[in-house]
């Protein structure tokens, strides 16, 4: 209850206080800070996927600005020889305002990444966006078969059906590539699993489906109770190490991350940066109120 209270009041706290919590989980506000964090991860043998923070824009001029920002990010990251790719949120490019404008914006970003033989991950957002984002992914996949992937969320009851329904895009030269995560948005019980065990069960079912169908999964979790069954599936299906990867958020569960890497598995870290760190941080805390204790500890450590 105490953690939930902290999470609920955090958006109304001074930014300097919120930063005590945030700085561990965000590379910084600037592209230079994101480059620095990415280089440090690369030195450890960890790949990255970079994300410019922000979503749910209010007008299409913001979508254009965001597109230009991503084009610059790609150029700068390529110049710095970062071993990584790019994540985009469709609402950041106008999905809920004009789907066609959103598509054209993201298509431009994917085309830029494809010039460098690189890759863009289309993030999945709340249930209002799921069908639109699958439609968007289909269009991009048709034109850029090896340069675009999608996120799927295990807590949604529809996800296994979505995975099955999208198999028509799979062929020998162009494999489907998904980030499989639990999901973070608050959804009604009619469409989303609420119990921890059920979400984990659906996660493992989705992962097994991917291994059975030669789909490349980004296994995105910080939960050892998901990691261990994933190890078992990798062994069961004798999956080559270049046919999957684990993925984690920047700054989260570094000990578990090290354990996975030490076992020889590929790891990619999601590196968020940008001036919208405050919104990102408050959303993260609402998603995981247990993190509230980190703020309290940080305050005491500062005296």
Descriptive labels:
12 helices, 8-stranded parallel β-barrel, alpha/beta, 49% helix, 303 residues
What would you note in describing this structure?
By secondary structure, this protein is an alpha/beta fold. The protein has helices spanning 2-9, 15-22, 31-43, 60-79, 99-115, 130-143, 159-165, 196-212, 224-236, 254-262, 277-287, 292-301; strands at residues 47-52, 84-88, 120-122, 148-153, 177-181, 216-220, 245-249, 267-273. Strands 1-2-3-4-5-6-7-8 form an eight-stranded parallel beta barrel, surrounded by six helices. The protein is globular and about 50 Å long. It starts with a helix and ends with a helix. 38% of the residues are buried.
The overall average pLDDT, rounded, is: 90
Portion of residues in beta strands equals: 5-15%
Q: Structural class of the secondary structure composition?
A: alpha/beta
Measured between the Cα atoms of the first and last residue, the distance is 25 Å
H/I helix tally: 12
Largest sheet: 8 strands, parallel, barrel
Order of helices and strands: HHHEHEHEHEHEHEHEHEHH
Order of strands side by side in the largest beta sheet?
1-2-3-4-5-6-7-8
Q: Looking at the structure, what is the overall shape?
A: globular
Q: What Rg do the Cα atoms give?
A: 19 Å
* Helix residue percentage: 40-55%
Q: Uncertain regions: pLDDT < 50 for 5+ in a row?
A: 298-303
Number of strands: 8
Mind sketching the topology for me?
Layout: H1 2-9, H2 15-22, H3 31-43, E1 47-52, H4 60-79, E2 84-88, H5 99-115, E3 120-122, H6 130-143, E4 148-153, H7 159-165, E5 177-181, H8 196-212, E6 216-220, H9 224-236, E7 245-249, H10 254-262, E8 267-273, H11 277-287, H12 292-301
Parallel strand pairs: 1-2, 1-8, 2-3, 3-4, 4-5, 5-6, 6-7, 7-8
């Amino acid at each position: 209850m105490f953690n939930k209270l902290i999470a609920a009041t955090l958006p109304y706290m001074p930014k300097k206080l919120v930063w005590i919590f945030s700085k561990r989980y965000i590379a910084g506000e600037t592209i230079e800070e994101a480059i620095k964090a990415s280089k440090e991860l690369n030195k450890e043998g960890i790949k990255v996927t970079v994300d410019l923070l922000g979503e749910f824009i209010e007008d299409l001029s913001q979508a254009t600005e965001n597109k230009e920002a991503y084009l610059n990010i790609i150029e700068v990251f390529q110049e710095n020889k970062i071993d990584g790719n790019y994540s985009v949120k469709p609402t950041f490019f106008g999905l809920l305002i004009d789907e066609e404008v959103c598509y054209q914006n993201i298509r431009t970003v994917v085309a830029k990444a494809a010039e460098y033989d690189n890759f863009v991950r289309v993030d999945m957002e709340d249930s209002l966006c799921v069908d639109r984002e699958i439609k968007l992914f289909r269009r991009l996949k048709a034109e850029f078969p090896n340069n675009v992937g999608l996120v799927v969320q295990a807590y949604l009851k529809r996800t296994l059906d979505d995975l099955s329904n999208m198999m028509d895009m799979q062929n020998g030269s162009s494999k489907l590539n998904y980030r499989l995560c639990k999901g973070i948005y608050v959804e009604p019980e009619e469409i989303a699993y609420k119990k921890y065990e059920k979400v984990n069960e659906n996660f493992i079912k989705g992962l097994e489906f991917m291994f059975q169908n030669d789909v490349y999964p980004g296994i995105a979790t910080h939960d050892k109770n998901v990691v261990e069954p994933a190890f078992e599936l990798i062994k069961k299906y004798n999956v080559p190490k270049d046919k999957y990867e684990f993925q984690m958020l920047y700054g989260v569960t570094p000990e578990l991350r090290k354990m996975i890497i030490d076992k020889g598995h590929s790891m990619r870290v999601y590196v968020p940066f940008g001036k919208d760190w405050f919104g990102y941080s408050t959303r993260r805390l609402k998603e995981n109120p247990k993190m509230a204790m980190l703020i309290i500890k940080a305050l005491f450590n500062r005296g």
